[in-house]
């Protein structure tokens, strides 16, 4: 199926329009591409009626094949003389498939528009060099900010050795996250809760502290109809291995549960968690048995996890915030109040740290969503 865009526009505007489409396409497989980023690619041919999309590709689940190879395969001979759009510099190294840069040369494309270069200093710019050596016009930096935001997890893992961390908190009108001893308390309405399900889809892991895991006994799965299979891995920060074997998360894909614990945890408890199917990973702790949040993220990075959605509880959220490890802050401001016995949120709209800038705001029924990104 081809898409037609009649009329003529300045080349820069046309490039931005198609790159925006490639970025939207890349979001389709977020969280599914293993160690590789989810890249979007288009092959666009210009005819009498204007530019026509003749090939589309997005990095396949598991990371292969790459987006460019799929887009070229779909375009076939129509790729000759066309423009290719890619949200990341086409690869130049030989792996299980030929380099995408070489494939673009062989296909005979005339132009390649790239959003951002490969962050790996060992290969950055090599794909561009291969294309230019073949006489192909190359444009870089087209919608780079937007593309980098879309692949923030991959870039974080490459540059910092740790996943990109989003902290989500649902805060009541009186500044609370819930009520002690009451399990899950509804702070927001169903529209906002469905929005959280969608956010989970965009991450490779959902993380909570063991206190929340015991108190709320959550499944931490995606419950949107038809998307249940897209549930990310679950991470429980559990220094002393207190997560009970009866936890509901062991009733559904127990092997997707990762327990971050310490050497101070009883061996019997660790063995029980392993028998339930959990992946148990020991992280160094201080003299009080508390794990260093940075080491938790480092371990998750070693496991190849690129993006984490932290959903609480209050103490776990506070420690990651104080450690300067939260990259994106998502605050749902609920209309409900909790009252006496409430668990105070470590942050609300009035106390967001200065290093965060407000990036978006939306409304879900009576609830508001305010998003912040770290600016430093």
From TrEMBL:
CDD domains (alphabetical): Riboflavin_deaminase-reductase
Domain CMP/dCMP-type deaminase: 13-139
Keywords associated with the record: Hydrolase, Metal-binding, Multifunctional enzyme, NADP, Oxidoreductase, Riboflavin biosynthesis, Zinc
Entry EC no(s): 3.5.4.26, 1.1.1.193
Naturally occurring in which organism (per UniProt): Aquibium pacificus
Cofactor (UniProt): Zn(2+)
Keyword flag GTP-binding: no
Molecular function per GO: 5-amino-6-(5-phosphoribosylamino)uracil reductase activity; diaminohydroxyphosphoribosylaminopyrimidine deaminase activity
InterPro entries: APOBEC/CMP_deaminase_Zn-bd, CMP_dCMP_dom, Cytidine_deaminase-like, DHFR-like_dom_sf, Eubact_RibD, RibDG_C, Riboflavin_Biosynth_HTPR
Lineage of the organism: Bacteria, Pseudomonadati, Pseudomonadota, Alphaproteobacteria, Hyphomicrobiales
Catalytically driven reaction(s): 2,5-diamino-6-hydroxy-4-(5-phosphoribosylamino)-pyrimidine + H2O + H(+) = 5-amino-6-(5-phospho-D-ribosylamino)uracil + NH4(+); 5-amino-6-(5-phospho-D-ribitylamino)uracil + NADP(+) = 5-amino-6-(5-phospho-D-ribosylamino)uracil + NADPH + H(+)
Presence of the UniProt keyword Metal-binding in the record: yes
Protein name, as recorded: Riboflavin biosynthesis protein RibD
Cofactor note: Binds 1 zinc ion.
Pathway recorded for this protein: Cofactor biosynthesis; riboflavin biosynthesis; 5-amino-6-(D-ribitylamino)uracil from GTP: step 3/4; Cofactor biosynthesis; riboflavin biosynthesis; 5-amino-6-(D-ribitylamino)uracil from GTP: step 2/4
Pfam families noted in UniProt: dCMP_cyt_deam_1 (PF00383), RibD_C (PF01872)
General function of this protein: Converts 2,5-diamino-6-(ribosylamino)-4(3h)-pyrimidinone 5'-phosphate into 5-amino-6-(ribosylamino)-2,4(1h,3h)-pyrimidinedione 5'-phosphate.
Family of the protein in this entry: In the N-terminal section; belongs to the cytidine and deoxycytidylate deaminase family.
